[in-house]
Design goal:
This is DUF6265 domain-containing protein. The chain has 112 residues and is mainly beta. It has strands at residues 2-8, 11-20, 23-35, 38-45, 56-62, 65-69, 78-85, 88-97, 100-109. Strand 2 (11-20) and strand 3 form a beta hairpin.
């Protein structure tokens, strides 16, 4: 689950959540920032990377989705968002982890 809000003309702030039974747990904070014509996805995950953000650069954009990549990151190296319908998207993190290709999907629907 994700929620987003606009901070200004070049920055959106997001939070992703996971459910554990009936509890909602914060998984990561994200900044989506535009600088000099480039778009960056910058997550900060508690208890990972010493609490420092990781920068992913947009490499692909289409009418139905976009891809951010950071080939130097341990895992994931790629974050993909694809529109599935008017009210749903699927996010996927993927890349190489311990020498093996891995991908994890996160289907999401709009909460009304």
């Amino acid at each position: 689950m994700e929620s987003w809000k606009k901070l200004n003309d070049s920055t959106y702030l997001g939070k992703s959540y996971q459910l554990s039974g009936l509890d909602t747990l914060s998984a990561e904070d994200v900044r989506l920032e535009e600088h000099h014509g480039n778009l960056y996805y910058i997550p900060t995950v508690k208890n990972q990377n010493d609490g420092k953000p990781v920068i992913f650069t947009m490499t692909t954009v289409s009418a139905d989705g976009f891809v951010f990549e950071n080939p130097e990151h341990d895992f994931p190296q790629k974050i993909t968002y694809n529109r599935m319908s008017k009210d749903s998207v699927a996010a996927e993190i993927s890349g190489t982890y311990k020498g093996k290709q891995r991908a994890i999907k996160f289907p999401m629907g709009r909460v009304k």
